[in-house]
Amino acid sequence: MAEHKNLLTLMDFIFTEQMDSLPAEYEWGLAVQAKYWGRIAEAWRKGEPINWNSFAGTPEIFLAMDIPSIMQEALSVAVCSLPDKSNERYIDIAQENLVADHVCSTQKIMIGAAISGDLPPPTTIVHPAQPCDSTVVTYPIISEYLGVPHFSLDIPTWKDERAIQYVADEIERMVAFLEEHTGKKLEYERLRTVMEYSNAAHDYNLKMNELTKMVPCPIRQLMGAVLMSAAGTPECVEFYKSLYERAKSRVEQGRGPLPQEKVRLAWFSTWLAHDLELLRWLEDEFGAIVVNTLLGTDTTPLAEDISSTRKIMEALARKLLNAPMARECWGTLEHWFDYAIPACRDWKVDAAILTLHIGCKNMWAVSKLLKDKLADEVGIPTMVVEADFCDGRVFSSDGVRAQLSDFFNTMLV
Amino acid sequence: MTALEELVELAEAPYNGAVKEWKEKGGKVVGFTCAYIPEEILHAGGILPYRLSPTGCTETTEADAHMSHFNCTFARCCLQLALKGDYDFLDGVVMMNSCDHIRRLYDNWKYAVGSPYMYFLSVPHRVDEGPEGWYKDEITYFKESVEGAFGVNITEETLNSSIRAYNKTRALLRKLYELGERDKPPLKGSEMMNVLLAGLRMPREDYNQLLERLLSEVEKKEDVSDYQGRLMIMGGACDNPDFLHLIEDAGGLVVADTLCFGSRYFWSAVETEGDAMTGLAKGYLNRPSCSRMTESQDERRDFARQMIERFKVDGVIYQRMKWCDLWGGEAFYVGERMKEMDLPLLVLEREYWLSGSEQLKTRVQALLEVIAGRRR
């Protein structure tokens, strides 16, 4: 891999040649990601426009405009899997350039990779100003550093009809920005086709979500959050269809991926990108399966009306406001309650885990209120563990596992 | 007592004589957290707007049980004082999505403290026509909520009158602040901060009178000349005059700032042409910006440059709260900009209260030595 100085060609190489390097038992959507990175690498080789976006975004727009777009957080997670610990190197570079050590490591990887030159500058950067301060601040600063045009979609706290119309307007402004800076155009017919694929994938995903409420849970929850980067592609539909069919078949057989499902967990935080074996360890040690996850359980609604560009914008606005993490983290505490309480009840959860990432200050600040609410309303315990999503040096994996062991041994098993 | 002495005394206590007197007369007081919340709306309803500024907080034991130690101590101190009952005199609280910490301060306040009236504003992160429309609607709903909760009628006339009162404050503060352009300014930065803090916790009309008195008094005041460098403070919320005292003790003179408790609070006036809510929406959203605003980097750079040039700044102290991601991220390009401007920069991460003061003083002295070295 040493010959790959450029992260874009490196990702293409990893996802086409090195897929086995990731733990196979989780649902990463590797084939989807291979195509995703392949498109980006090809555009880079041809010198065509490339965009950067943050998660909880609108992949459908980029696809319809034929602008390959790198979801930076997906790149950061993938970088954490590299054997040379590039994640740590990039984080250090960002911090050496005055980015505070407590800013989200996911975005520090982006900044460090860009400063180092390993990540070529894009043509444009767009991002919704959600779901946390780190996302709000890091995209503008890296765009300024790289001298790349940048557009930030304003996302309000509320999720009502007024907010939907406002965000739909914001997406239209984003499209105008992309058209101006890339020369690409958004055509309704192409957008409608992309939305049909997006709807098909979301439909399978929502049906699969229903199946994961069964006991035993028929399938491991998605770790890859594939919809966030690839919704709108045919391969994404195929991926979710295959997952759904596997889950359905297992439900019919009354079995899940674990020999014996002892504990059902809701994982209301990021998992650890620097320790992808953690969830497997929980399964092996405690028979614990994650049935609902903050990032993996995508509950964004279908785009019911795609009869006009404006209607699609409104549908995408609904998606943006309800995307994983934006759904709970970008608002007042009631948004957390609205998601977490039914998630624990409907998914028959025994305990909630909050491996709270140091970058997620907004989650840290309500962890007690959430913990108390889940105990009062659902009657389940919540374990809060200090962690860092992409940097194992801040809180070690061993330490996280020790705390989880104590929790399982004293509270659950 | 001089006007300055009166203002310093009013700034020192969260529940000061002016607020007590207001409450004793049956007046309502509503706390708020951020410079993007238009005080004029409360003022027009006959309510005393009170900006939360947890003066005197030195520990957060109770607050830590609710918010975590990964949250900034400004927010935790506000919660601490609320949990201890120090804010029991408030009849309500208004907060907004300033940052993750303040947004969650609202949640914790709501569930762990509770106030008779609580309101949350969703303020845009970008400034242009669309977000301005959203913000105007938000503050209009806020006005209606205040009217309903407190049984008051806020008219166009009362709003315009409040805007005029606040614009008068802005003009007086700016006149006072601009005295800092002099080589020997009449006020130190710590004194100016006290003047500003007093205004956050007293009736506006009384404040304006005190400012007018102060302006006439400073003409007779002895000018400050014993300093080794003219400094500007940048970064996140800073309302602690002791922090500035420490810089002054080290030999620096704070002549300018780009703080939300400082110059950004009063620098631009609210337009009085057209309807009042439009004026407030434009005025507040377009004031010199906080790092929460995503497309305003150029504006922040220009404002800082303008302040540096006008106030003949020799060096910059960029301070921010530990755990503040907004200002923790912004530091990246502030560093780049100071390099471009060839200005010495000291970056400080701090807690709300003053801790490690000797170490801090040493670092300020080192900055002043760099400044002195450049003069040689």
Q: What is the secondary structure topology, with strand pairs?
A:
The complex is a heterodimer of chains A (413) and B (376).
Chain A: H1 7-17, H2 30-46, E1 51-53, H3 59-64, E2 69-71, H4 72-80, H5 86-96, H6 105-116, E3 124-128, H7 133-146, E4 150-153, H8 161-182, H9 188-211, H10 226-230, H11 234-253, E5 263-267, H12 278-286, E6 288-293, H13 309-322, H14 326-329, H15 333-346, E7 351-357, H16 361-364, H17 367-377, E8 382-387, H18 397-412
Parallel strand pairs in A: 1-2, 1-3, 3-4, 5-6, 5-7, 7-8
Helix pairs in contact in A: 1-2, 4-6, 5-6, 6-7, 8-13, 9-11, 15-17
Chain B: H1 3-12, H2 17-24, E1 29-32, H3 39-44, E2 48-51, H4 61-64, H5 73-84, E3 92-96, H6 100-113, E4 118-121, H7 129-150, H8 156-177, H9 189-199, H10 204-218, E5 229-235, H11 241-249, E6 252-257, H12 263-266, H13 276-285, H14 297-310, E7 315-321, H15 325-341, E8 345-350, H16 357-375
Parallel strand pairs in B: 1-2, 1-3, 3-4, 5-6, 5-7, 7-8
Helix pairs in contact in B: 1-9, 1-10, 5-6, 7-13, 8-10, 9-11
Q: Notable features of this structure?
A:
heterodimer, A: 413 residues, alpha/beta, Rossmann fold, four-stranded parallel β-sheet, 18 helices, B: 376 residues, 16 helices, 52% helix, globular
